[in-house]
Amino acid sequence: MIERVRGQAGAAIFARVAGPEGEGRRDRIHGTPGPRRFAPGDPVWRVHGDASMFVGGIRALLLQSLHPLAMAGVDQHSGFRGDPWGRLQRTSGFIAMTTFGTIEHADRTIAAVRGIHERVTGTAPDGRPYAASDPHLLRWVHVAEIDSFLRAHDRYGSMPLTPAERDRYVAQAAVTARLLGATDVPEDVEQLRETLRAYRPELESTPAARAAARFMLIHPPVPWTVRAPYGMLAAAAVGLLPRFARRPLGLPWLPVTEATAVRAGGVAVTRAIGWAMAPPARSTT
After folding, report:
1. Single GO molecular-function term (predicted)?
2. Do the Cβ atoms of 77 and 84 come closer than 8 Å?
3. CA atoms within a 13 Å half-sphere pointing along the CA-CB vector of 48
4. Domain for residue 171, yes or no?
5. Which segments of the chain have a pLDDT < 70?
6. Residue 211 falls within a domain, yes or no?
7. Which string of b and e fits 211-247 if b means at least 16 CB within 10 Å?
8. What is the residue-averaged pLDDT of the chain?
9. What is the distance between the alpha carbons of residues 78 and 68, in angstroms, rounded to a whole number?
């Protein structure tokens, strides 16, 4: 009975994140023979395969929204409001393919995304032009993601990384960022911190960023049956945001609550997701 319930919960979570083609994509990613850039024991496998990615993904979207040019591209070209789960499924598929897939499949996926980026151009509300293929914007999106994934794994991951493994994770994640067209990508944790610090003068509050935060945190497109666990994931994500990112998005700074109730809720829900999505135990009889 427990295994059946876990299987049903895991299937529901996987279907929501991976989409209707998720099963076939997972089989193709993990079942296709061929050389891969990364191995199962690598830090990038451990981080990107952990349930803490649910927290890290929300934090990354909130942090990324603070760059007005990156947010303009999302707001004007992405269907994240009309089809937020579709966008999540495409993003999770990209991360899975470039992390766990063969080099051939990963490179094909990267080339497809680069082609999309070439067509995403426009003008931000402040009059500045932007292009999704801009190496500077690509680097911002990358460092916001990797910092978020790493911090979420540090706090909620099932197998925390050592300092050397954290540096190696940043270096491994940089491979895909460079192939996407980003330049001057950080290779270790200290460089990651410095790169994020260098972007701070470019970050600001915009109506689009605040609207995106409200959409993700207050009016999320999730069924009422999963509102409570999603709320815990969202609270955990906000709890990992740096203080400088809170005010521009209209988010509170509650250090005591975040260190106690929010952290406990984040641990509970990520462990539950990890339990639900784990392969069922095989009978030995």
Report:
1. oxidoreductase activity
2. no
3. 25
4. yes
5. 1-24, 79-89, 256, 275-285
6. yes
7. ebbeebbeebebeeeeeebbbbbbbbbbbbbeeebee
8. 85
9. 15
Share of the chain above pLDDT 90, in %: 57
Percent of the chain with pLDDT over 70: 83
Q: What is the pLDDT of residue 282?
A: 43
Which residues make beta-bridge pairs with 218? none
Helix (H) or strand (E) holding 6: helix 2-18
pLDDT in tens, 121-170: 999 999 999 999 999 999 999 999 999 999 999 999 999 999 999 999 99
Query: Is 215 inside a domain boundary?
Result: yes
**φ/ψ of residue 123, rounded to 5:** -130, 130
| 248 located within any domain | yes
Domain that holds residue 204: 2-277
Secondary structure element (H or E) that encloses residue 121, with its range: strand 121-123
